[in-house]
Structure formats: structure tokens, C-alpha cells
Amino acid sequence: MRFPVADRFAVERGCLGPLPEPRPDTDLHREARAGRDAFVRVLGVDYSVLPVFVGRRIGGRVTPHAIRLSGAGAEIATHRRSFVPADVVLAPAHGQALRLARDAADRLRTGDRDLPAADLARYDALWEVGA
């Protein structure tokens, strides 16, 4: 004879107690190093971080819906979890920062250092120095 789940729950409800506080941590914890391309691989998927974290150890907290990456004691990125093998998850802000960092590295490598001439008249105006 089969009983529906609702009927079983009604019978067992009297024996169930409240969940303990604080609730037990059931999330997965992983640690990885951010690669040169500013991505951290967690469970076979690459998640983006800011370029300043390249080469650093990054901790990952894996929940059923999200990946929370932390470094230096603070949360640095949160991504929606992907279950697609070899997927790449890129946050738009991380992509823009990565592009700017690569452009700056290219300019330094080629010797293209365009620095505008300093306008010292702004300092005179700031301190109201007359000529």
C-alpha cells in the first residue's frame, strides 16, 4: 500500500523538532589561485575576478545557486552558479577592468606613455596667486 507524501508528513510532523540555530553550513568550500587571465576555476567552471587578484589565493563558497569568491578576508565577487562543464562566467565590470588592464599593459610594453603636460595655472588659481 502506498501513502502520499502529504499523509506521511502529517504523521511525522509531531516528531519533528525545530532546526538548530545557527543552521549547519552545507555549502561547499573550495580554494584556488586566480590565473593570469583573472579567472578562478571552481568545480570545472571559470569565474571572473578583478585583475588585481591575479595570482592570489581565492576562496570559493559554492551554494546551489551562487558562487561567492573571497580574498583577503572580504567578498570580491558573486556569480550565478553554472553547471555547464568548462563554462566561463564573466561579470561585465570584471570584463571592463580586464580590458583596461590589458590596454595599460600593452601601452607600457610598447613605450607609449602619453602624459599630458601639467597645467600649473590651476594651482595658481587654487591659491589665488596673482602675477
Explain what the structure shows:
With 131 residues, the protein is of the alpha+beta class. The protein has a domain at 22-110. Helices cover 26% and strands 27% of the residues. The protein has 3 helices and 7 strands; from the N terminus they run αβββββββαα. The strands form 2 sheets. It has a 4-stranded antiparallel sheet, with no helix packed on it. Strands 2-3-7 form a 3-stranded mixed sheet, with no helix packed on it. A hairpin with a 2-residue loop joins β2 (39-42) and β3 (45-48). The longest helix has 19 residues, at 92-110. The protein is elongated. It starts with a helix and ends with a helix. The mean pLDDT is 87.
Strand and helix map with partners:
Layout (H helix, E strand, L loop, with lengths): L4 H8 L15 E6 L5 E4 L2 E4 L8 E6 L3 E6 L2 E7 L7 E2 L2 H19 L10 H7 L4
List keywords for this structure.
7 strands; alpha+beta; three-stranded mixed sheet; 131 residues; 3 helices; four-stranded antiparallel sheet; single chain
Distance between the termini: 102 Å
- What strand order characterises the main sheet? 1-4-5-6
- Helix run count: 3
Strand content: 25-35%
What's the order of the H and E elements? HEEEEEEEHH
* Helix percentage: 25-40%
Mean pLDDT: 87
Spatial extent as radius of gyration: 26 Å
Low-confidence segments: none
- Number of extended strands: 7
Biggest sheet record: 4 strands, antiparallel
In short:
The chain has 131 residues and is an alpha+beta fold. It contains 3 helices and 7 strands, in the order H-E-E-E-E-E-E-E-H-H. The chain has a domain at 22-110.
